[in-house]
């Protein structure tokens, strides 16, 4: 398997084996990210201690019998985006995978995910406790789930708020030849039987894409939040969602400004009254 993935290596940890892979790419412009995360996470966290997490699992329904077999962690570091992935080659290696993850998260101070609050983190918490670990590493970390942000900002124009749809709408990017996430469980079971190693390599690439996309989405949304007039995505209703999110975050000056942009752009639409009421409420709260 390692031969199919550039830079992958097999290591021993806690009496088990893991296939580890690290990749590095340019991070892009990050100036707007830290101020937004400080507000959204309600904590001042250095960017190099913010970690995006995504898992591939043996099932999509959750429950005590579902296991995360591949975990991706991405972070910003010295102007680069660093991705670490760990695969357990077999079920007896799960304690090694969980120990690796705990060590990685010990150095983190905040988490980013896409549906992680509902799926990834509860599943991992269950697996730690199944192995007798009660003090679960991520429980105390501030956590921003980008799925909730995307729903708030862009659900008005997304058919579904899947990560792939969010990439199309927000990053203006389309995946080419990506393995669907729902195919990952079968690929892992076939891998355990010694079959379809190439498909398992495709699961690695899918997980890498998902994990890195969380950071790219965060960077893009932060740029939109910092400068909505310049970074607008072309749909004036985005301003309405952005203003409501700013208000929810307690950033009332920004909310008032962006509601003003939305009112100008949407004055002749049914949304006008909603915007005017929200603006009136902010003016009342701020004594304007």
Task: Provide an overview of this structure.
It is a single chain. This protein has 288 residues and is of the alpha/beta class. Helix content is 48%, strand content 17%. The chain has a seven-stranded mixed beta sheet with strand order 1-2-5-4-3-6-7. α1 (33-41) crosses α7.
Main beta sheet, described?
Answer: 7 strands, mixed
Number of DSSP-assigned strands: 7
Terminal residue distance: 64 Å
Q: How many alpha or pi helices?
A: 11
The strands making up the biggest β-sheet line up spatially as 1-2-5-4-3-6-7
| Average pLDDT over all residues | 91
Keywords for this entry:
288 residues; alpha/beta; 7-stranded mixed β-sheet; elongated
Topology:
Blueprint: E1 9-13, E2 16-26, H1 33-41, E3 50-57, E4 68-77, E5 80-87, H2 94-106, E6 110-113, H3 116-130, E7 143-145, H4 146-154, H5 163-171, H6 184-192, H7 197-226, H8 228-231, H9 237-248, H10 252-265, H11 272-286
Parallel strand pairs: 3-6, 6-7
Antiparallel strand pairs: 1-2, 2-5, 3-4, 4-5
Helix pairs in contact: 1-7, 4-9, 5-7, 6-7, 9-10, 10-11
């Amino acid at each position: 398997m390692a031969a199919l993935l550039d830079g992958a290596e097999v290591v021993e940890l806690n009496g088990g084996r893991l296939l580890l892979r690290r990749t590095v790419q340019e991070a892009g412009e990050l100036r707007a990210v830290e101020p937004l995360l400080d507000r959204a996470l309600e904590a001042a966290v250095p960017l190099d201690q913010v970690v995006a997490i995504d898992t591939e699992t043996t099932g999509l329904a959750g429950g005590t019998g579902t296991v995360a077999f591949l975990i991706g962690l991405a972070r910003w570091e010295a102007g680069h985006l660093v991705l670490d992935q760990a695969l357990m080659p077999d079920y007896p290696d799960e304690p090694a995978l969980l120990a690796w993850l705990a060590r990685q998260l010990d150095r983190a101070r905040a988490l980013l995910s896409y549906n992680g609050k509902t799926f990834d983190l509860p599943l991992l918490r269950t697996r730690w406790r199944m192995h007798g670990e009660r003090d679960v590493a991520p429980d105390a970390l501030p956590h921003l789930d980008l799925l909730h942000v995307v729903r708030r900002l862009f659900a008005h124009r997304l058919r579904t708020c899947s990560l792939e749809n969010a990439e199309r709408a927000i990053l203006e990017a389309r995946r080419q030849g990506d393995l669907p996430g729902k195919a990952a469980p079968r690929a892992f079971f076939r891998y355990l039987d010694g079959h379809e190693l190439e498909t398992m390599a495709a699961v690695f690439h899918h997980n890498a894409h998902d994990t890195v996309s969380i950071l790219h989405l965060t960077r893009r949304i932060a740029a939109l939040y910092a400068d909505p007039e310049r970074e607008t995505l072309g749909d004036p209703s985005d301003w309405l969602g952005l203003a409501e999110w700013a208000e929810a975050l307690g950033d009332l000056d920004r909310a008032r400004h962006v509601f003003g942009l939305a009112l100008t752009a949407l004055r002749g639409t049914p949304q006008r009254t909603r915007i005017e009421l929200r603006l009136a409420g902010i003016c009342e709260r701020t004594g304007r």
